[in-house]
Each structure stands twice: as C-alpha cells, then as structure tokens.
Amino acid sequence: YINLFINAIDNSEPCEDIQKRLVILRDYFTELLYRNICRSLFEKDKLLFSFLMCSNILKNKGLMKEDEWRFLLTGGVGLDNPHKNPYAWMPIKAWDELT
After folding, report:
1. Which has the closest alpha carbon to 11: 37, 31, 38?
2. Does the pLDDT of residue 96 top 60, yes or no?
3. How far apart are CA 23 and CA 61, in angstroms?
4. How far is the C-alpha of 79 from the C-alpha of 70, rounded, in Å?
5. Which uninterrupted H or E stretch holds 36?
6. Distance between CA atoms of 51 and 54, rounded to whole angstroms?
7. Residues 12 and 25 sit within 8 Å (Cβ to Cβ)
C-alpha cells in the first residue's frame, strides 16, 4: 500500500497548485489501487469490487445518501407504513417497499 502511494506521488502529473495536485493524486491513486487489486481478483469478483469502490466514492463525496444505500442493500423492507395502499392490484409488500 505504501509503495503504491509512493508510486502515485512519483508518477502522477505534477502541479504547483496544492488543491489541483491533491485531486490529481487522489484520482491517480484510486486508479492505481483499483488496477492492482483487480489483478489479484477472479473475473467474477471484479464487477462487485468495482461497484463497492464506486459506491464508497459516491458516499464519501456526498452523492449517495445513506438511506439510498440501505434501501439498495436491504431491498426496501417496509415496516409499519403509514400510507395506505390505494391500488387493489398491487400487493401490500410491494407498496410498503415503494413508500
């Protein structure tokens, strides 16, 4: 891990502006880390790793809300829904998951 970070510092695009340099380093290190980890994964696991890495980046940037993440993981288990199901054709479980 330390060698990857040193590699990112040495090989990333130099920049005099500190804020731009930090963005360049973060992006370069993220890609370097992704490539090195994917080298050791089975092909079937690479998509899951990519999804987890992407979702964590989105969560850290504030672009994915915690309740959205939990909904994605749990499938929207409905508990004591205060809203009545107005549709006779829709199962109650499906309505609870939507609201």
Report:
1. 31
2. yes
3. 13
4. 14
5. helix 18-39
6. 5
7. yes
pTM: 0.66
In angstroms, the CA 30 to CA 24 distance is 10
pLDDT band at 78 (very low <50, low <70, confident <90, very high): low
Residue 12, pLDDT > 60, answer yes
Q: Name which residue leads in pLDDT, 80 or 48.
A: 48
**How many Cβ atoms from other residues are within 10 Å of residue 8's Cβ?**
19
Q: Which two tokens stand for residue 97?
A: 């998951």
Between CA 28 and CA 7 the distance in angstroms is 10
Note the pLDDT tens digit of each residue in 14-38.
999 999 999 999 999 999 999 999 9
How many other CB atoms are there within 10 angstroms of residue 93's CB atom? Answer: 12
Maximum CA extent, the chain: 64
